[in-house]
Specification:
The protein has 326 residues and is an alpha+beta fold. The chain contains eight helices and ten strands. It folds into three domains: 78 residues, Helix Hairpins (Orthogonal Bundle), CATH 1.10.287.90; 113 residues, Immunoglobulin-like; 76 residues, Cytochrome Bc1 Complex, Chain D, domain 2.
């Protein structure tokens, strides 16, 4: 034991030296910095649970080391039993009642925080936005009829009421800095909310395994001034929807330039230059009975959105004579 003690001390010192990195809000053991009131209250619950579990871990591991040292063999033969330690009624009552008390404190604190997590602040006119989860992209519909793909634009300070749904399989909307997860379930409508308190761009990920290329189903929320938000939904969203669809839907599998990724290289495919052929593929999919095949991504697109995509790919993606996988 004495020979191993320096190694044990070194391990403890290394753990303490890296504790700051592990606890950093950058993908370590703690949540990212909250940017919405509901995320703040979720973080409070997280830190309470973390405090109790960390304290229990330190206590148990410290006692383990002390007992290993105190009741070590001291050269006793392996076949000889050590000193017999009998029960201690007071200690047994304490370690039975202690966990019950801790769980009661955690439960009470969670129920105290839940109203602030679940209920949006009072707002005379919350911003109503519909989120649809598709394989493998997020679609956002704004009150004026504008639509964006992949990135949701909102004004800073506005209470945003989200209607979350899915036309295909289970998805899960999650932007960690802006609150908890909410499921997008076919045939069911769920609601959640957030209120971005400062300008910024916050990223997230579909938190439900929704298919073989689920890892690329990312999302972002861009909080900006009221003027920038109005300009986006009145002008920019309409002008760029073709590029948004390509980058947020098609490029997920086929790469930014259509040269292949999870899906085949289509940059040289004449299908991109034929509106009718392109429409047939995006509306019906390709070999949809096979796992991982291309789904009918355009099943719910409007004519204007398909026209915008067709114009975009013909101008920016289609390269006649390029190698193509189909």
């Amino acid at each position: 034991m004495r020979r191993k003690l320096p190694s044990l001390v070194l391990a403890v010192l290394l753990a303490l030296a890296t504790a700051r990195v592990a606890g950093a809000a950058n993908g370590g053991f703690t949540p990212v910095a909250p940017a919405s009131p509901n995320a703040v209250h979720i973080q409070h619950v997280y830190y309470l649970v973390l405090g109790f579990t960390a304290a229990i871990f330190v206590l148990v591991e410290s006692l383990l080391v002390v007992f290993v040292w105190k009741y070590r063999g001291r050269g006793r033969a392996r076949a000889v039993e050590g000193a017999q330690i009998h029960g201690h009624t007071r200690l047994e009552l304490m370690w039975t009642a202690g966990p019950v008390l801790i769980l009661a404190i955690i439960a009470a604190f969670v129920f105290y925080q839940l109203p602030n997590i679940d209920s949006a602040p009072a707002a005379t006119d919350p911003l109503q936005i519909t989120i649809e989860g598709h394989q493998y992209y997020w679609q956002f519909d704004y009150p004026n009829g504008a639509r964006s793909i992949g990135t949701l634009h909102v004004p800073v300070g506005a209470v945003v009421d989200l209607t979350v749904k899915s036309p295909d399989v289970l998805h899960s909307w999650w932007i960690p800095a802006l609150g908890g997860k909410i499921q997008a379930i076919p045939g069911r409508i769920n609601h959640t909310w957030f209120q971005a308190k400062r300008p910024g761009n916050w990223e997230g990920q579909c938190a439900q395994l929704c298919g073989v290329f689920h890892a690329s189903m990312r999302a972002a929320v861009q909080a900006e001034s009221q003027q920038a938000y109005r300009h986006y939904i009145d002008t920019v969203a309409h002008e760029t929807i073709g590029g948004q669809i390509w980058n947020g839907v098609c490029a997920t599998c086929h790469g930014n330039l259509g040269r292949g990724g999870y899906g085949p290289d289509i940059s040289g495919s004449p299908l991109l230059a034929s509106r009718s052929s392109l429409r047939g593929i995006v509306h019906t999919g390709v070999d949809t009975s096979r796992p991982g095949a291309m789904p009918p991504v355009a099943r719910l697109w409007t004519k204007a959105e398909f026209d915008a995509l067709a114009a975009y790919v013909k101008k920016h993606i289609y390269k006649p004579g390029a190698t193509s996988g189909g």
